[in-house]
Design brief:
Elements lengths: L2 H4 L13 H39 L25 H4 L1 H30 L3 H19 L2
C-alpha cells in the first residue's frame, strides 16, 4: 500500500481539474440565478401591489355568479393597451407581474443560448434555440 492509499503521510490534497462544463457552469449559474431572483422579485412586487390596489377599489363588491362576465377586452391579450392602467391599475399591475413571470422563461433560455454560442457548443445552441422557438410558438401561437 502507498501512503495515498492509507491516508497517512502528506496532507496535501490535490485539487481535481475542472472540466470545461464545470467552468461554464460557474460562469452561467450566477447570471441565471441573479436574473431569476430579480425577475421573480419584480413580478411578485407588481402582483402584490396590483392585488392591494384592486382590493382597495373592489374589495367590498359583491360577486354576481348568476351572470358570467369575462375579462374586459383590454385584458384578453398579453400586450396591455393604452388606457388600461388608468381604467384599472390593479388589474394592469397583476397582469404585468404575471407577464413578467412568463417572459422570464424567455430571458432564461435566451441567456443560456448566448452562453452556449460563446462556448461554441453548436449542438446546444440549436437545442436551446428550438426551445426558445417552442416558447414563442406557445405564447403567441405563430
Amino acid at each position: 500500500m502507498t501512503e495515498h492509499d492509507t491516508g497517512m503521510g502528506s496532507s496535501k490534497a490535490t485539487e481535481p481539474e475542472t472540466t470545461a462544463h464545470e467552468q461554464w457552469d460557474r460562469r452561467v449559474q450566477p447570471v441565471l440565478g441573479k436574473t431569476l431572483i430579480v425577475g421573480v422579485s419584480l413580478a411578485a412586487a407588481a402582483v402584490v401591489v396590483g392585488a392591494l390596489t384592486y382590493l382597495v377599489k373592489h374589495g367590498g363588491d359583491l360577486a354576481d355568479y348568476g351572470v358570467f362576465n369575462g375579462e374586459p377586452p383590454q385584458f384578453r391579450h398579453i400586450l396591455v393597451r393604452g388606457g388600461t392602467f388608468e381604467d384599472s391599475p390593479g388589474r394592469a399591475l397583476i397582469q404585468l407581474g404575471l407577464v413578467t413571470l412568463i417572459m422570464l422563461q424567455f430571458v432564461r433560455v435566451a441567456i443560456v443560448d448566448v452562453y452556449f454560442a460563446l462556448a461554441r457548443d453548436w449542438w446546444y445552441v440549436g437545442l436551446s434555440t428550438l426551445v426558445l422557438g417552442a416558447l414563442i410558438f406557445g405564447l403567441w401561437g405563430v
